[in-house]
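My main concern about presentation is that the manuscript never shows what a single data entry looks like. Each protein is reduced to its one-letter sequence and a matching series of backbone shape codes. For the editor and my fellow referees, an illustration may be useful. For illustration, here is how one protein appears when written out as sequence plus structure tokens:
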Amino acid sequence: MSLPPLTLYLAAPRGFCAGVDRAIKIVEMALEKWGAPVYVRHEIVHNKFVVDGLRAKGAVFVEELDECPLDRPVVFSAHGVPKAVPAEAARREMIAVDATCPLVTKVHNEAARHHENGLQMIMIGHAGHPETVGTMGQLPPGEVLLVETVADVATLTVRDPGKLAFITQTTLSVDDTADIAAALKARFPAIIAPAHDDICYATTNRQMAVKAMAGKIDALLVIGAPNSSNSKRLVEVGANAGCAYAQLIQRAADIDWRALEGIRSVGITAGASAPEVLVNEVIDAFRARFATTVEMVETAVENVEFKVPRILREPA
């Protein structure tokens, strides 16, 4: 029996960004340098496949610093941590390695600079997400106000409307964030915007690729974890761009084949913390069921690379 024809549109860029690649490398280098176990505060990146792979090599994932023994290294996740966490690690004289994405650190520094200049910060982000918690934790309580939607802007109570600046989580929807930023500027005309967009290049590029393929496809599959902000935003971007069926899957086993009956084209992308091996797994699953043609939809070329911390480059 001949297989039904299907075109797979493969987004480019997709998958690992430079910050995720660096964070994973940091854990692997820490294991090589100090041996197992190496403790990691929070999932190093939001992807079960990646975390399970590092766990098998000797990484131990915990949520709080007090779960880590004093005589073993601890790595802070790519999402960043409140300022109190490295301070406590230093007080305990622990070996601590910071895997915070440099683009998140840029936002931390931006917030600190505005605070030094007497400005109250407003952060556009998702409550409870580790990056938001880490960024808000760079300043004293009350110095960073969180907004998640345009509606939140109307209910904000600020200290001085003339002394405000805003920052954003790096993994948000570009379009949604622009709407919230516009609402902030309309209500607080003096508010200072980021000098450069806080949403990272990788988030922006992956969303652009989804928009570019949206008009060609009957369905969109985003490979990523359910707790991955940038992956969930890709699903939303696809739906907003006209994809009637846009779903987040962790890997090929999660594909709902019944929902895809009768389709002729599928778009595939992967969040910034999803490895390419999972993309290939999904493509192979389609090839087993369809006469598959793969076409690339490339909207940007990425060649960003971040250095690992000096402590990992020094002799043990």
The chain has eleven helices and twelve strands. Residues 18-34 form the longest helix (17 residues). The mean pLDDT is 96.
